[in-house]
Amino acid sequence: MSETTPGRENAVARSASNLYRAVWRWHFYAGLMVLPFMVTLAVTGALYLFKDEIDGFVYPEIKRVAIEQGNVAPEAMVDAALATYPGTAVKYLDPATPESPAEITVATADFGKLAVYVNPYSGAVLGALPDRGTIMWTIRTLHSLKYFGDTARLLIELAGGWSILLVGTGIYLWWPRGKKGGVVTVRGKPGNRMFWRDLHAVTGLLVGFFIVFLAVTGMPWSGVWGEKVNEWTNGSNFGYPSGVRVDVPMSGDHLDHVSKTSWSLEQARLPESSVAADTPIGLNKAVETFDRLGLHRGYAVAIPAKPEGVYTGSVYPDDAARQRVIHLDQYSGEPLIDMGFADYGPGGKWMEWGISVHMGQEFGLVNQMVLLAACLGIVLLAVSAGVMWWKRRPAGSLGVPPLPEDTKVFRGLIAILAIGGIVFPLVGISLLAMLALDWAGTRVLPPRFA
């Protein structure tokens, strides 16, 4: 018994060492894949957390008004906007606060869609910008990668899936295993590798939860998983949960086509007006109805462009529980569909709450500051990883962590990766591609490049 115990201990030690090497190797690959995207997403995300504050600072002459007595009717503000910028009014945005202007979206022949800002107290036109043309809309499209086209949205799913892998393998590598230092403290000085290794490990420990949370709640914007799950959760491509659909004529247009909506309602189809009367109720009456029904301030009203169209009032405030969409018959003014957060299914509620927290809205300034700290931590994580790799990398080598002596340890790791690949198919494909490249690289490249 005493003669075999050391052998068993050595075997266990070798097995643990092999597993550590395998995990370290895939942690390196995950970092290689995702860290550039994580830095970009962290920087743009940190800026977008303060979208209202930044837009108010950049555009003070059109984004802020002095509080006065009295208000101008919505139709009068639309007329003023059209007098300055001729075209067709397609949307009216109710002032969210007493200091906010009204915003009229005008489709023009020469400049496309414009967002025209109007003083709700005097009716004076303050100015205009291209629709969704503020600096923060640009930051948002950069953050979602839509700035680079729809195909680039596929990278969101890849970045999210590999980020989760990065955190999982990082926790394994961080696990103390009897270590007394470098677990929650940073040793050494910036000139040596130990300092950067400990800084990387401790930072990863602090922001790991946020990376996983942001990755999961960012998945709704991904090009494959997000779209498929959206269709599945909406059911039959209709968009309203059971009990909300009513016996009214429905059009083929979706809510997202006429007004930017929540993720859960992108597939929601628009009802149709009855066309039983000759005269529509008009924007003033529609706004009065939305106010009477208690729609949260800052709602948008999509103005019907067709005889069968409806007035759609929609609002998505910081508090996700107050999301609401109401469609009015443009002739009778009767609500055709009135849907709020309470009508969403469990999955939709969780998703909308997660998105609201992801955007720094749900818990006010605390939400913003916590996520700002997380974004800064992600940037520090990436910087420390780069410095640590550079200091560890042998001259003339890529510095890829060595293969384990027994490659069988990859089997369990690959099984775990396969589960993630099934949940996120695009990530699974990229994992297979990385496995193939790793296998080929170990057999083709000279050892000094490994």
UniProtKB/TrEMBL annotation:
The regions listed as transmembrane in this protein's record are 26-50, 154-175, 195-216, 369-390, 410-437
Query: Does this UniProt record's set of keywords contain Mitochondrion?
Result: no
Q: Which domain of life is it from?
A: Bacteria
Give the record's keywords alphabetically: Membrane, Transmembrane, Transmembrane helix
InterPro entries listed in its UniProt record: PepSY-ass_TM
Q: Return the PANTHER family for the record.
A: IRON-REGULATED INNER MEMBRANE PROTEIN-RELATED (PTHR34219), PEPSY DOMAIN-CONTAINING PROTEIN (PTHR34219:SF1)
Q: From the Swiss-Prot or TrEMBL record, give the protein name.
A: Putative iron-regulated membrane protein
Which organism does this record belong to?
Aminobacter aganoensis
